[in-house]
Amino acid sequence: MHNIDKNTNFNCLLGEELIQLCIGQYQVQLKFHINTTISTECKLHLIRPDNSLIEIYSDNANSTKNLVCLLGEKITEIKTNYQDELSLMFSNHHKLIIFGTNKNFESFEIWHKDQQLLLV
C-alpha cells in the first residue's frame, strides 16, 4: 500500500529482544522488550542459518508457528529495499523478511514507544 520512506531510521530497533509472539486469525504480532511491536498481515520469509527458507503467511497459523525460533533473540541488523521489503537479522542468525504484498490494505506496521514508525 505504501513504500518505505527513505528517511525512516530503524536504528531504534537494533538490540530489541523478541519477548512475545501473538498469532491471530489474520495477523501476527511480534512484541519486543522496549515497547516495540511489529504487526504483519502479509507474506514473510524465515531464512535459517543453513539458508533454508520457510514461507510464512500471517493468516496461516500452521506456518506462523515457525516464528517461535525467534523468541528471546535480539535484532542485530536491519535492511530494506525502501519499497516494500524489510529484513531483520536476529542474534540466532535467522533472518526474517517481511513483504508489503497487500495492494489494497496495510501489510505491516511498526510501533515504537507509542509512535508509529512505519506503515506499509
Q: Termini distance?
A: 6 Å
The pLDDT mean sits at 92
Order of helices and strands: EEEEEHEEEEE
Strand content: 35-45%
Radius of gyration based on Cα positions? 13 Å
Please provide the count of β strands: 10
Count, helices: 1
Backbone shape:
globular
- The unreliable regions are none
**Helix amount, in percent?**
under 10%
Largest sheet: 5 strands, antiparallel
Oligomer, anyone? single chain
Produce the secondary structure layout:
Layout (H helix, E strand, L loop, with lengths): L17 E6 L4 E5 L3 E5 L2 E5 L5 E5 L3 H4 L10 E6 L4 E6 L4 E5 L8 E5 L2 E5 L1
Antiparallel strand pairs: 1-2, 2-3, 3-9, 4-5, 4-8, 6-7, 7-8, 9-10
Structure description:
This protein is mainly β and 120 residues long. The protein contains one helix and ten strands. The strands form two sheets. It has a five-stranded antiparallel β-sheet, with no helix packed on it. Strands 5-4-8-7-6 form a five-stranded antiparallel β-sheet.
Entry summary:
With 120 residues, the protein is mostly beta strands. It has one helix at residues 61-64; strands at 18-23, 28-32, 36-40, 43-47, 53-57, 75-80, 85-90, 95-99, 108-112, 115-119.
Short descriptors:
1 helix, single chain, mainly beta, 120 residues
